[in-house]
């Protein structure tokens, strides 16, 4: 079946966005993004807002771990969280919540 969606290195935009949004469930990656000051870039913050479409059931069904992924996506909408993820205790609390959610989802 042919698609009119352009491919980027053989992947569709949706596939690339799906892979990226799933990385947001990793607190260490969020900490890395904050340390790189990505959350201070208005275009990146807008992109995180755009990715909210993954909250819709028709897209959420593709997430491997929807609980931690959607929770992180929700938290990233808050400026205070984007700042606080640099704090080790905040990162560890998010990690613990994610592990608990992931083990009860399956």
Structure description:
- It is built from 7 helices and 2 strands, in the order E-E-H-H-H-H-H-H-H.
- With 106 residues, it is mainly alpha-helical.
- It has a single domain, classed as Orthogonal Bundle (Arc Repressor Mutant, subunit A), CATH 1.10.10.
- Strands 1-2 form a two-stranded antiparallel sheet.
- The model has no long low-confidence stretch (mean pLDDT 89).
Mean pLDDT: 89
Q: In CATH, what is the homologous superfamily?
A: Mediator of RNA polymerase II, submodule Med31 (Soh1)
**Given the structure, what is the number of helices?**
7
Shape: globular
Percentage of residues in helical conformation:
55-70%
Q: Name the poorly predicted regions.
A: none
User: What order do the SSEs take from the amino end to the carboxyl end, as H and E?
Assistant: EEHHHHHHH
How would you sum up the major sheet?
A: 2 strands, antiparallel
CATH topology: Arc Repressor Mutant, subunit A
Give me the CATH architecture, please: Orthogonal Bundle
The number of domains: 1
* Binned strand content: under 5%
For the secondary structure, the number of strands is 2
Rg measurement, Å: 15 Å
The largest beta-sheet arranges its strands as 1-2
- How far apart the termini lie comes to 32 Å
The structure class reads mainly alpha
CATH class: Mainly Alpha
């Amino acid at each position: 079946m042919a698609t009119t969606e352009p491919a980027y290195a053989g992947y569709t935009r949706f596939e690339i966005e799906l892979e990226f949004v799933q990385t947001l469930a990793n607190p260490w990656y969020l900490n890395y993004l904050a340390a790189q000051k990505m959350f201070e870039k208005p275009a990146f913050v807008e992109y995180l807002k755009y990715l909210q479409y993954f909250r819709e059931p028709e897209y959420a069904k593709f997430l491997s771990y929807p609980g931690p992924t959607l929770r992180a996506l929700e938290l990233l909408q808050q400026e205070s969280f984007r700042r606080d993820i640099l704090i080790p205790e905040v990162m560890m609390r998010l990690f613990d919540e994610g592990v608990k959610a992931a083990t009860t989802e399956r």
